[in-house]
Automatic annotation (TrEMBL):
Family assignment from sequence similarity: Belongs to the TRAFAC class YlqF/YawG GTPase family. RsgA subfamily.
Domain EngC GTPase, residue spans: 105-252
Stored SUPFAM superfamilies: P-loop containing nucleoside triphosphate hydrolases
Stated name of the protein: Small ribosomal subunit biogenesis GTPase RsgA
A Pfam family the protein falls into: RsgA_GTPase
Length: 352
């Protein structure tokens, strides 16, 4: 296999002496990369580490990077540059802080997985759609565990209500139903990321698509700051049909950080255009076309609530994230806020 099999399509200009590589696995800033010369372990160059401010500036699975190869193939390669990302998918880390966590980069299609069993939840799907809309990647919906569906027809109709033009695929791993459609949908050298809460059946879907009796390696479980188990391993694999897949195991919740809530609610957005006030919050203002649509039974009340809640969450988190990023920069440049103030005072004195 060469790098084209991993999706290297467009011309990527290289700096002198460096080679193009794609990151296929990470763990504690130890990377596994693939190049036209084979696989290597890799580390990021000190200079690159110094330019980074927060976690999202570090290379992640799916990234295209420029590397210096070691003379001995058993030695570690050095990642010298991070190529600009075509798409990026972030989520808020668990807990109250609004640190960004990179889920994957350069994904062409997000496959939003949701189980048709008791965990079926349209509000969660709306959340995933809002994040997908901001990522730059296209989205498709993969409904799993069709054998456990309470009312498949009604569930499909409800999904159609809240989606626009996203393809919807239905799978049942117990009979392998839907797997043919899924593999036919997935194209060679295109990158897909399976997203969905822990236990929706992502691994069960991917394993038969790997071929050659290969199995996804079990995710590494670690303790996070709250003593809970979290799965940290991400990996990029090439399936038997040639498509490139990023597995994102162990997601408990998908905190909004970089979302486009309006894009995922174009029906609400269209109604809002007819509200009397252009900055209507659709809570109690007179002449609200959105609430009127709810009263008339044209818009689901739960969907409006979901929209308002996601809007609030997104606004709060992006505000907090802006602050966190600013603080990280001050820390890097001055060593802290106190030091920065002292330096500014000093500079003012000199000017006088
Ligand atoms: N009844 C039924 N069970 C399924 C189906 N697909 C998966 N399961 C079961 O659901 C459980 C979770 O499946 P996984 O594939 O491990 O889920 P996952 O999404 O990879 O979970 P994480 O790795 O934690 O993110 C397993 O016990 C599977 O056997 C299905 O189509 N029908
Ligand atoms: Zn309104």
């Amino acid at each position: 296999m060469n790098l084209n099999d991993y999706g290297a399509t467009h011309e990527q200009p290289l700096a002198n002496g460096l080679m193009l590589a794609r990151i296929i696995a990470t763990s504690h800033q130890q990377y596994t990369i693939v190049t036209d010369a084979g696989r290597y372990r890799a580390q990021i160059a000190g200079r690159l580490a110094n330019q980074t401010v927060e976690a999202v500036d570090f290379p992640t699975v799916g990234d295209w990077v420029q590397v210096r190869l070691p003379e001995n193939a058993d030695d570690t390669a050095t990642i010298e540059r991070l190529n600009p990302r075509q798409t990026v998918f972030l989520r808020k880390t668990a807990g109250r802080r609004s640190d960004a966590q990179l889920v994957a980069a350069n994904v062409d299609w997000l496959l939003l997985c949701m189980a048709l069993d008791a965990n079926f939840n349209l509000r969660r799907l709306e959340r995933y759609l809002a994040v997908a809309a901001a990522s730059g990647a296209r989205a498709a919906i993969v409904l799993t565990k069709a054998d456990k569906a309470a009312d498949l027809a009604a569930q499909l109709a409800a999904v159609a209500e809240i989606t626009s033009d996203q393809p919807v695929l239905v799978c049942d791993a117990t009979t392998a139903a839907g797997l043919t459609e899924l593999t036919a949908f997935m194209q060679p050298r295109v990158t897909y990321a399976f997203l969905g809460s822990s236990g929706v059946g992502k691994t069960t879907l991917i394993n038969p698509l790997l071929g050659h009796g290969a199995l996804l390696t079990a995710a590494v479980r670690e303790h996070d700051a709250h003593g809970r188990h979290t799965t940290t391993s991400r990996q990029l694999l090439v399936l038997a049909n040639g498509s490139v897949v990023i597995d994102t195991p162990g997601m408990r919740e998908l905190g909004l950080l970089d979302a486009n809530v309006d894009a995922a609610f174009d029906d609400v957005k269209a109604l809002a255009a007819r509200c009397r006030f252009s900055d209507c919050t659709h809570q109690q203002e007179p002449g609200c076309a959105v609430r009127a649509a709810v009263s008339a039974g044209e818009l689901d009340k739960d969907r409006l609530e979901s929209y308002l809640q996601l809007q609030t969450e997104q606004a709060q988190n992006s505000h907090l994230r802006g602050k966190a990023r600013e603080n990280a920069k001050i820390e890097r440049m001055f060593g802290g806020k106190k030091q920065m103030k002292a330096m500014m005072k000093e500079a003012r004195k000199k000017r006088r």
